[in-house]
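User: Here's a chain of 689 residues. Predict its fold as C-alpha cells.
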Amino acid sequence: MTTTQNSRPDPAGASGPTGRMAPTGDPETPVGAAAPIDDGTAVTGGAGPLPTEAGQVSEKEARQVAEAARETAWDRPSFGKELFLGRFRLDLINPWPRSDPEEAARAEGFLGALGAYLDSEVDGAAIERDAHIPDEVFHGLARLGAFGMKIDRKYGGLGLSNLHYCRALMRAGSANPAISALLSAHQSIGVPQPLKMFGTAEQKQRFLPRLAAGEVSAFLLTEPDVGSDPARLATTAEPTADGTGYRVNGVKLWATNGTVATLLVVMARVPAADGRRGGITAFVVEGDSEGITVERRNTFVGLRGLENSLTRFHDVYVPKENVIGGEGKGLKIALTTLNTGRLSLPAMCVGAGKWSLNVAREWAADRVQWGRPVGEHEAVAKKLAFIAATTYGMESMLDLCCLLADDDRNDIRIEAALVKLYASEMAWKIVDDLIQIRGGRGYETAESLAARGERPAAVEQLMRDLRINRIFEGSTEIMHLLIAREAVDAHLSVAGDIIDPDAGLARKARAGARAGVFYARWLPTLAVGRGQAPRAYAEFGPLAGHLRQVERASRKLARATFYAMSRWQGKMERKQAFLGRVVDIGAELFAMAAVCVRATAERAEHPEHVELADLFCRQARLRVDELFTALWSNTDSVDVAAAKRILAGRYAALEEDVVAPPAELPWVARWQPGPSAVEDVRRRIPPAG
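Assistant: Prediction complete.
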C-alpha cells in the first residue's frame, strides 16, 4: 500500500498545539442552511459589486470572522468535549435522562392528533407528484398548532420539548419530507428560535403569536456567491438618516420557505461608523415589505414540495426595533441557534431509517430467491443488520441530545453537530443498502410500482430526498471542521498563541507557561484509565466491554490528536482529511456510549434493545479500527498533490469525448444591486375558510 504518512497507530509525545482551525474548501450550503465558516478566498466570482467591508477578504480575515462568531465560553459540561480530550465522562449521560411526565403526556396527545391528521388528510404522493403542499395542509397544520411546536405557550405555542418536537418532525417527514422541512426551517432556524434565545420581550410579543397561529418564517443567510463564508456577505443594511431604521439591499439564495414566508430572519452587514460597531446583523423583516421580490422558486432533485426562493431586497425599510440581539451579533446568533436547530435534521434521518427498516424487513421476508427468503442470504442479511443497528444508533444519539438540550444544564454544541453529521451520513448509506435489497424495484418509482399492482414503496424518492441532508445546515466537510475546531478548543485556549504569527514574545511566553501547566496535568491521564479494568462498567452487563472500549479509544483519540498537533502545528488546519477522521471516530464513540446507556436503562421494557446495542457496537468498533488505521496510513498528501495538477488542467484530456455543460454560462450567476426586473413569484396562503 502506498502511503504518505509514517505508520503510527498510537502516537504520543512531543509538544506544541495547533493553530486556528479554518476550512479551506468551498462546500456550499444550500436550501436555507447555515454553516458559517469557509475559505475566505478573495474571489468575487461574478457576484456583482460587494460592499467595502465584504468580498475582498483574505483567508486570515475570513477566519477571524468565523472565530469572532464562535461561542467561546464552556460554562456548562459537555460530554462530547470531554470525549475528545480523552475523558470518558459517562456520568454526564448516565443515568439516561428522562422527560417530565406531565409534559410528555401533553406532547403525546399532540403527536397522536398530528399522526391521525397526516394519515387521513395528507397525500404525500400528491405532494411529490405536484411539487406542491396544498393550502389545506398549511391550514390543517396550523389548526393543530404545528407551526408553534417550539414556541412558548404564553405566546400561543405548544412549548414542546426538543425530544417531542423531533418526534413530530419524524412523523411529518414520513408522510412527506417536504412537510418536515417546512416545519423545521420555520421553527429551528426561522424567526421563532432566534427570538426565543435573543429577542426582546416586545419582539416576542409582537411576532411569536403570529407564527404560532400559522404564519410561516424563513432564514436568509446564503447569497449567490456566499455559501459557508460569511466574511464575504454582500447584503447591506444602511442606517437611515433619521435613525429610525435601516435600508436593506442584496440578494439571498436558497431560502427554505422563502416563497411562502411572511416573516424573515435576514442577515445583513451594517457598515461600521463612529459610535457604531456595525458588522453582520440579524433582522426580523416583514415578508411583504416594499422592495422585496421573490424572483425564483428553486427546484431540486428531491424535496419536491419545498418552497425555496431566490429573494431580492431593494431599499427595504426595516425599523431599528427589528434588530435581533444588537448590531454585529448576527453570526453568533446563527451559530447559537443551530446548536439545537441542528437536531431537526437527524430527526428526519432517523425517520428515514425506521421507514427503510420496515420496507427492507417485509420485502426480504416475502421475496424468495434460490429457494429461500432473500433476507436469509448472508449478503442481504448483513445489510438488514446494518440498517437495524444503525437506525437504533441514530435514534439513541438523537434522543440523548434532545434530552440533554431539554435539561438546559448541558452544552450540546458538539453533540448536536455530531448527531447531525453522523445521521446524515448513515441515513444515506441506509437508503443505498435499501435500494440494493429491493433491486430493480428500489430504482423504480412508487407510481410505476402501483401501476402494475405492487406495493408503492417510494424508495427512489427517499434516496432523492435524503441526499440533501449531507449539505443542509452545514455540509459534511464543514461539520468535520466545525467540530474539530471545538474539539481542540482546550488546547488553543492554553497554547494557541505559541504558533500565532501575530502573537508577540510576551504572549508566546505566557502561552508557554500555561501550556506547561496544562499538559503536565493532562498528558498523564491519557496513559491509563478505567477501560483497562476487566470489571469496569459491570452494571451494564453484556454491554460493559463496549464501554471499556469507548473509554480506551477516547484516550487513544486524544493522544493521536495531540501528536498530530505537535507534528503539524499551524499546518494542522490544512489536514482536513485527518481532522475528518478524528471527528468520525468521536461520533462513533458517542453513538456507542448512547446506545449502551439507553439499552441498559430500557432493558426491563425492551430487552431486545440490548441485542441491538450490542450489534451496533460490534459494527461501530470495526469502523473505529479502520478510522484509526487511516489516520496515519492514507494517501492524503498524494491526493492533494494530484488535485493541484487536476485543477491546473494536466489531465484535461481525460475529459474528452463527452458533452460538457455549456461553457458560456458562469458557474455562479451574476447579479447587480437595484430593483427587481422580474415578476414576483411569492405564494401567499389564503386564510382558512
